[in-house]
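Hello forum,

I keep getting stuck at the same step: I have a sequence, I want structure tokens, and every attempt I make locally crashes halfway through. Rather than fight my setup again tonight, could one of you with a working pipeline run this one for me? It's a single chain of 252 residues.
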Amino acid sequence: MTSRKSSSAIKKAFAIIEQLIETGEPLALNDFSARLGLPKPSIHRMLTQLEDAGIVTRTASGKTYLVGERFVRISLDTMRQSIQSGSARDVMRRLVDDLGETCNLGVLDGNQVLYIERIECDKPLRLFLRSGSRVPLHATAVGKLLLAFIPEAKREILVDLDSVEQLTPNTLKGSKLRKKLDQIREDRVSVNVEESMLGLAGVAVPICNPRGEVIAGLAVHAPLSRFGDTEVNLAKVRLIEAAHEIEELLFS
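Reply #2:
Ran it on my machine without issues. Output:
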């Protein structure tokens, strides 16, 4: 009997977490009860336990819930291990060999991009960053890509687009940044030209889960002197091909 109760509790916990992930926005007690068909006292008890464990967290209002920091960290570590221990890393290596430039795979981590994998090119002139490095959301190719696919209301909570840091004269903000994010969402390609650092350009495309949700960005960046229109267009094609390969490896 105890085993069955434990199994039922685990199923309820995962159902709650899945609702938060699939919805992508804060949910209240009433929302969980309606979606899962479970009584409010049962949902409330489970949410309290998940909150104590750091798996969910309350918003500032105290009435709605989001996925918690501990669960985010577990998810990122799981994805990192899947990339690093599997054939997805080989796909990134081939991409670097084809294009001759550094390749990154980044995910949303709070209000920054976290590079969970990075394959360096062998050219002497390059920007050196390690896996685990974090870069701005608003001024990088991967960052803008991830921002573009966040629901607008959540995006504005995450990053104040009107007052983001002006990293270079080309950094976009306010209405110009919003327009660019709309364009990226439509094109499904993000290009960065000296927005985070003078002399640096990059291109990023999405990696999606089986539901079509963007979970990461695959990018190539290089000094602007080596990354003109021809190189950028080739990078777009190869990145899209590589992203599809990685999706197959992760989810097939």
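The mean pLDDT is 86. If your local run keeps crashing, start a new thread with the error log.
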